[in-house]
Amino acid sequence: MTELDLADDLLAYIEASPTPWHAVQETRRRLDDAGYRRLDERDRWSLSAGDKVYVIRGGSSIAAFEIGTAAPSEAGFRFVGAHTDSPNLRLKPRPQRQREHIHQLSVEPYGGVLLHTWLDRDLSIAGRLLTRGDAGLEEVLVRFDAPLARISSLAIHLHRDVNEEGLKLNAQDHMLPMFAFGGQAPELEAMLAERAGVAPEAIAGWDLCLYDVVPPSRGGPHGEMILAPRLDNLASCHAGLSARRSAGDATAATRGVVLYDHEECGSMSPQGADSPFLSDLLERLARAFDDASDAYPRALARSFLVSADMAHAVHPNYADKHEPEHKPRLGAGPVIKTNVNQRYATDGESAARFRRWCAEADVVPQEFVTRSDLRCGSTIGPISAGRLGVRALDVGNPMLSMHSCREMSAAADVAPMIAALRVFLSRLD
Predict the structure, then answer these.
(1) What pLDDT, on the 0 to 100 scale, is given for residue 429?
(2) 3-state secondary structure of 143
(3) d(CA 305, CA 136)
(4) Mean pLDDT of 119-134
(5) Are strands 335-337 and 366-368 parallel, antiparallel or unpaired?
C-alpha cells in the first residue's frame, strides 16, 4: 500500500470500530483474511511452528501471534501492545428518562472524556447486547448509523460570560442527550431488539456507547489531516495489526499484537493490561513447545514489548504546554515517549533499540517528555512490562485534540510507524 492508502485504510478501520467490541470484530475479520485461526481459552491447544492464532477475551480484547520457528524459551516473544477503548459516553442500565417533555438518555462518562467536545454532535448508539439463546448467553453487536441523540449546548444569550469564564459542565446534569420530543418515546430496548433481530424479552444485558456518526475523513489542502474519532488509540491498534500482517515469513521469535480494553479507566478488568490475559496466553505458548518448569521465564527474558499509544503533538496555540526541546510535530514521524517516573516504560536501552529500528525503516523518530510541572499520563506499557517482567518502551504517533469526540493526526505519520513496527517484528535481536 502507498502512504495515503495506509491512511485511508486507517479511516476504514476506525469507521468499522465505533466501540471496543466492534474494534475486536474488525481486527478478527482482518486476521481471518490473513490466515489466522481462533483459539478458545477453555480448550487444550495443539500448536506448531508457523501457526497463526488469536485469542479473544471479554469480546473487547484480542491477542494474535504467529508461532516462531524456535521455541519461545529459546527465541522469546516480540509483540506490539495497544488498546481498543477510547473515552466516550456510555448508557446506564436504565437509560430512558424525561425532563421538560423531552425524552433523554442517562449516560456515564467513560475514561477522561473531554466533555464539551460532545456537545452539538450527531450521536448514535453502538455496542453489544447479551441475549438469551439455546446455548445460553450470546453476544450480538449492534450499531445505529443514523443520528439518534444530541447534547445541545446552552445559547450564549442565556450564558453571556461563557467565553470569558469558560464552560463548566456537570456530567450528571448537563451531558444527558436528547432522544425524542413530547408524547411517547420509542422504547430503546425494542429498537435494539429490532436492530439485532431478536425479541425484546431475549435481551439480558448490554454495553452501549454513544458515538459521532460523522465518518472519519482526510482534510486540509492536500488531504494531509486525519480527522476522526477514537484515534486514541485505534490508530495504534491499526499500526500494530498492519505491521504484524506485513512483517513477512515466520522468524525464530513468536511475534504478535495484543489489543486490550479498559486502558482509559485503569486496565483493571479480566481483559485489561493489569489482568493475567496476556501472561496466561504467553505461558501456554511457551509451555506448548518446552515443558521445562523454567520455559516461561526463559521466554520472557528473551522478549520485548512495544507499547503503542498516541502522543501529544505540539499545539501552535498552546506551545508553552510542551517541554521546550521535546515538541513532536504532526507529520514528522513516530514519537518516543519517556518519563523517568515510569509513567511510560521507555528507558535508555529500549529507546536506543527503537531508534535503530526506525533507522532501518528510513524513519526519523521524535521525542516527547512531559513538562516537569505537569502530571504525565500513562499507558499499558508500564503495566504490561511490570506484570510480565519484559523489556519495553512506549511510542506513539503525534496527534491533537486527544480525548475529544473527534481528534486529529497527520496522514503522513501512518506509514512510518507501521514501517518501524514491521522492522521490530522482523528483527532477531
Answers:
(1) 60
(2) strand
(3) 37
(4) 95
(5) parallel
Cβ contact 198:131 at 8 Å? yes
Given a contact cutoff of 8 angstroms between Cβ atoms, the answer to whether 18 and 126 are in contact is yes
pTM above 0.70, yes or no: yes
Taking the C-alpha atoms of residue 306 and residue 418, their distance in angstroms, rounded to an integer, is 12
Place of cell 533499540: 353
Look at phi and psi of residue 10 and say left if phi exceeds 0, alpha if psi is from -120 to 50, else beta: alpha
Which triple of cell numbers denotes residue 351? 529507546
Tell me the CA distances in angstroms from 221 to 218, 253, 414, one per residue in order. 10, 44, 18
Quote the percentage of the chain above a pLDDT of 70: 100
CB of 424 closer than 8 Å to CB of 415: no
Q: For residue 184, what pLDDT is reported?
A: 81
Collapsing DSSP to helix, strand or coil, 53 comes out as strand
Length of the chain: 429
Picking from 427, 42, 65, the residue whose alpha carbon sits closest to that of residue 245 is 65
- Give yes or no for a contact between 25 and 141, defined as CB atoms under 8 angstroms apart: yes
In angstroms, rounded to a whole number, what is the distance separating the alpha carbons of residues 284 and 289? 9
What phi and psi values does residue 123 have, to the nearest 5 degrees? -105, 145
Backbone angles phi, psi at 388, to 5 degrees: -95, -30
| Separation of alpha carbons 70 and 50, rounded Å | 10
